[in-house]
Amino acid sequence: MFKNAPGTDDFLKEYNDCLTGLAAESVAPGANRIKPGTFNDLITRYYRSPDFLGPSDRTRTVYRGVIEAWRKKYGDGKVRDLEARHVEAMLAEKLPYRTAANMLRKRLNALMQFAIRQGMTDKNPVLSTKHYKVDGTGFHTWTEKEIAQYEKRHPLGTTARLAFDIMLWTGQRRGDARLMGPQHVKSGRLDITQEKTGAKVSLPILPALAESIMATPTLGLVFLLSEHGKPYSKNGFGNKCRQWCDEAGLSHCSAHGLRKAAARRLAEAGCSNQQIKSFTGHTTDFEVARYTRAADQQALSDDAGKMLMANLRKRLAIENDNLLDKEA
Hints:
Elements: H1 9-20, H2 39-46, H3 50-53, H4 57-74, H5 84-92, H6 98-117, H7 144-153, H8 159-170, H9 174-177, E1 185-186, E2 189-193, E3 200-204, H10 207-215, H11 234-247, H12 255-268, H13 273-280, H14 285-291, H15 297-327
Antiparallel strand pairs: 1-2, 2-3
Helix pairs in contact: 4-6, 5-6, 8-10, 8-12, 12-13
């Protein structure tokens, strides 16, 4: 008999102990019993729902970490008693870390939406609160000058250059870049399933990327191998990207910034949001907007001005033609 509720960390520990033959502690009658209508009750149900089980393992780990930290203090509270003022106070506890506060707000919003469907409440007070404005634009977006600087330091044929080219010319996250290999190449395209979201993306292998792949020996199922001839781990690849950037004198640049640079280039080329999403795998226009803020504003405004003037000239020509018709 398990003494902890299914879906909780303590339950998983009990279950693993059973598998390994470890004796469980004796169960005290009524101990750790989850009270109906509490957030402990809600969270236990939530962990078994498609809402939580749908995202990737990596995303679920992040979500669970946020929820469990909050649950330690508020798990015994009644779901129906939660009000907007309570939520605002909970978020304020995270300050000065605004991003952490916003992350908690998102998780509470998801929990309350689920609670409504479960009949545990008829309102979502999180919707009455506001997220904190976060200064800055996140990871730095690589400029063309910085891209050229990296390419000069890491020439074609090196692992450092191939890793760079994969991320820049596919616009994918570093976690996906480290797993790409010959098995993903089909009819001149890269067909991948994104690790974070599970989205399937099919991308053309552009000439610059093809040249880089051909210039770098491939000995396994992945393009990028460590000095030991093995695929990089998540942390190992992240550390290596950091090293390669530092070697190029680009300590302020990052692997994630290359994804933003790819989106910037697509925006500067005049691609629509839908086209950019099809390339990067983003699902919303809001996400694309965050990534394309570094697009060449001057060039885009010039294009907008040209389009405006062309439309004005067209309209003026139509008005003149109508005037001549009337005079005739």
